[in-house]
Amino acid sequence: MTRLTTFDKALLNLLQGSIPICSHPFAELADRLGTDEGTVLARLRELKAAGFLRRIGTFFDSNRLGYQGTLVALKVEPQALDAVAQAVNRYPGATHNYEREGTYNLWFTLLTPNAEYESNILAEIRSLRGVEDMLKLKANKKYKINVQFKLQ
Amino acid sequence: MAISEQDKAIIKALQEDFPLCEEPYKILAQRVGISEEEFLRRVKELVDEKKIRKMGAVLRHREVGFNANALCAWQVSPDKIDDAAQVMSSHAAVSHCYDRTPAPNWNYNLYTMIHAKTRDECEKIIGELSSLTGITNYKILYTKREWKKTGMKYFCETT
After folding, report:
1. ipTM score of the complex?
2. Can you give the pLDDT at residue A86?
């Protein structure tokens, strides 16, 4: 696997913070790193191809776009887990889906444009073979959403 | 809170992978059919309106060495939840901190995602958060497998 150089870490730390909103954003990042636009772009393409970057882009506040979100925990029979996980994955609004240790072994987040949409999807998932219980954990307040890993 | 058709087009352009080229916003503006200047102006406004939370990169945390990732569910008395959430949010290892309505037979109302390099480190962080907040009833739910993690595609529902 590609080893991250000191330059890579500085670049990724900066890029996790923000992409400038201007005509040549990568030239501005390059300025701050003491290099040029071409070097930054070439290295970013390599780091992306090597799998270090999950996504470069825009992250929206789902509530302010009119969407509602919930965390859902499922208790699934072990032999049905793969099939249920794949069924959950097929919903575009299921953006995060994780198998976890514990009685409730599948946890996913669901974003939908309205309550009816949400309850229809949850009813479908609850009725899947092997789903024994479902917890719906609605967010009241988001104190922090900031996925940044400081690389040293 | 209606979102204009033009904003929807801008949001749809922005939610795809950001082009890694010299003038990325020009390309996105072309997809919407507006000028780069107008596109940049509107993006800045969407940031001011807090509809955009962040423009930037998210790393694959396992690839960069974070192998112990846990959802920690805490049981807090409602009058203490605000203070506890502030303390937890200020910790660098906490990426998400949400107050959630608990469910029957599941009394946990505060949720944090914690990222560490090892389980020992993760549990040390959780121990620190517990002693800082005085919350002793919690459940550590380690990630066993990531089945999906994607950005949301807004305004693409079929029905």
Report:
1. 0.87
2. 98
